[in-house]
Write a structure and sequence with these properties.
Layout: H1 10-26, H2 28-33, H3 52-66, E1 73-76, H4 82-87, E2 96-99, E3 106-109, H5 117-133, H6 147-171, H7 179-193, H8 198-201, H9 206-218
Length: about 220
């Protein structure tokens, strides 16, 4: 008999499900307010641009979607011109970081990332979820050792799974979760929130689209 191969291992699948359960039990408001966020004018009001004002506007949109009213500082990182970054081998430098402080948390970002808006949105979502999870990081399934992985997952639990899948495909890097594990987490979000699959699939290009279809069939 031939068995259908699972997209991800059982331990990882259980960890994803455990994180959904944790949010339902301990942060029900997060779950209640989560919506399926798409890279459209329905969810983002910021205009296109590559300056700090644009970065602030996009970050404000994300915070609104997350229901966050934190006082977070946003600061661009110093950056070499493109030709010099390639010359010195720095084209893969850090794109964003979250610096926790109870009074004035800080997010830094690479300005050139604004040229690829979806990747910038994805990076800012990840850093803002760091801020959301900071007070409970050691309480989440997997504990602190899984914190970065959990941050990626909680972006999806918060409704940004389409953004994550498509941004990773666009940029050619996967962050902390793999594309199959992201697809499984997004399929779980769609199932639990009772969204029609097409609401997500129509915003995904070839490979992410296929990953999500496989995840939904295996669910």
């Amino acid at each position: 008999m031939f068995w259908k191969q699972s997209l991800i291992g059982e331990d990882l699948r259980h960890w994803i499900e455990d994180n959904y359960d944790w949010v339902h039990e301990h942060r029900p408001t997060w779950w209640k307010t989560a919506q399926l966020v798409t890279p459209t004018r329905k969810h983002f009001s910021a205009t296109h641009g590559d300056d700090h004002k644009t970065a602030q506007a996009v970050t404000h949109d994300i915070m609104r979607l997350l229901g966050m009213d934190y006082q977070i500082q946003l600061e661009p990182l110093p950056e070499l011109p493109d030709e010099l970054r390639h010359e010195y081998g720095k084209s893969s430098e850090v794109v964003g970081e979250y610096w926790h402080d109870d009074d004035a948390p800080l997010i830094t970002y690479r300005p050139s990332l604004l040229r690829t808006p979806l990747a910038f949105i994805n990076t800012m979502v990840h850093e803002l979820i760091h801020a959301r999870l900071a007070p409970v990081a050691d309480e989440l399934p997997g504990g602190l050792v899984a914190h970065e992985l959990a941050t990626d997952l909680h972006c999806i639990i918060a409704g940004f799974g389409v953004i994550q899948l498509q941004a990773a495909e666009q940029m050619g890097w996967t962050g902390y979760m793999t594309q199959p594990s992201r697809a499984v987490a997004l399929a779980e979000f769609l199932r639990l929130k009772e969204f029609e699959p097409e609401q997500a699939l129509k915003h995904l290009s070839g490979r992410p689209n296929r990953w999500l279809k496989k995840a939904m069939k295996a669910a």
